[in-house]
Automatic annotation (TrEMBL):
GO terms for molecular function: transmembrane transporter activity. Keywords: Membrane, Transmembrane, Transmembrane helix. Residues 212-419 form the Major facilitator superfamily (MFS) profile domain. PROSITE patterns: MFS. The chain crosses the membrane at residues 44-67, 79-99, 105-127, 139-163, 169-191, 212-237, 249-266, 278-294, 300-323, 335-355, 367-388. This is MFS transporter. It is found in: Cell membrane. The keyword Isomerase does not apply. GO terms for cellular component: plasma membrane. Gene3D superfamilies: MFS general substrate transporter like domains (1.20.1250.20). InterPro entries: MFS, MFS_dom, MFS_trans_sf. It is a multi-pass membrane protein.
Amino acid sequence: MSTGYMQLLRTRHAARLLAGTLLGRLPNATAALAIVLFTRAEGGSYTLAGILSAVYGVGTAVGQPLLGRAVDLWGQPRVMLPAAILSGLGMALYAAVGLEPLPVAYAAMVIAGVFTPPLEGGLRALWPSVVGRGEKVHAAYALDAVAQELMFALGPLFLTLLVGAWSEAAALLVINAAGVLGALSVVISGPSRRWRSEPREAHWLGALRSKGLLVLLGTFFFVGLALGSIAVAAVAYGTEEHNDAAASYLLSALGFGALIGGLTYGARQWAGRAEKRLLLLIGCLAVGYLPLALTPGVAAMTVLAAVSGVFLAPALACSFVVVDRVAPTGTVTEAFSWLVTTFGVGAAVGTGVAGPAVETGGAPGGFLVAGAGGIAALAVLLAAVPVLMRPVGTAGPGVLPENDRIGAVEPGFTTGHQA
């Protein structure tokens, strides 16, 4: 796999697009922790921090499909750069006004969330024109995923360093300025300026007419809920342990665990139905979240966080294969956007629920929300196995046949957070 990664990086535009997308997504990758830290520094409660983070998450979830459709209509540069600037200005407004007046803080979160540019979906749309199709596209997804795991692992540490060197407000400004620069690097590139969306059949439901996709959306809503609650619970755990860096340790360990799992999963090809494998991976993911509620010492808790993340990247990677199978013809980009949206809504709900859970039950209460989210994700998947295992092309009357662009053997690849 490493040899294939190096070959891809030597492809013209590949390294620049990957680096620009990762830098552009840094604000989104650190937003949950950054909002909680800044809100607490301003004297706000965990409940308020969770609500503000949830507002940002819901805004992102709403904005992604809308901005994605705008990109399809008008191209990447006209949409992504203005969106990145507006999102950055929203966070700058929050850093400037703090919690007073509170309605302005809420408005800032809405602006920052809704205008988060759809860089991840945009990069996936660009890969075929940059590296070609077939095996190289799957290898590009793998490279993208491994790099994203590093970003999600190192992002919280970078944020903590900025807070320690300056302040929570300065960290918000620096992170979001970097996001604008990343988006700028992507949209002025040749592939981004030349890219145009392929025509697709108009349908008011679009990708949502696939029952298989709806099953995946329900499953990963609860996976997102689990992850969103962990961000709030981790900060509460650090406070209880009188260790300000503990939250970044846990979130970084979660990211490194996902990186290890993703590299292992992507090191081989997988035969058989991806749907069956997804069921097993979600089950392992659910089991991995439960021990976090034990909240042992920082060292042991960091190990538990890493273990809980091991099955995250493989589960997401496998879900991408299933999405590619079940999305109606011409709606694959939209289907991925809905996955991002649902994941984001779940994470936002998780942060909102974890706040009151922490207020009443401390850090263990917050981590119990994560465990419940994992179990709920598994329950959805188990309940809908007949729908998900339906052969391709049997979507039912009035629904276009689903696609199978993966084939009998699935090239191993991994993916990162937020889909």
